[in-house]
Amino acid sequence: ARVGLIGFPSVGKSTLMGKLTGQYTEVAAYEFTTLTCIPGMIYYKGAKIQLLDLPGIIEGAKDGKGRGRPVIAVARSCNLIMITLDAAKPAVHKRLIETELEGFGIRLNRKPPKITISKSARGGVNLSTSVQTSLDLDMVKQICAEYRIHSADVVCRENVTVDDLIDVIEGNRVYIPAMYVVNKVDAISMEELDLYDRLPHYCPISSHLEWNLDGLLEMMWDYLGLIRVYTKPKGQVPDFDAPVIVRKDERHRTVEAFANKLHKTIMRTFAYANVWGTSVKFNPQKVGKDHILNDEDVCQIVKKV
Question: At what angle do helices 92-103 and 68-76 cross, to 10 degrees?
Answer without folding.
Answer: 80
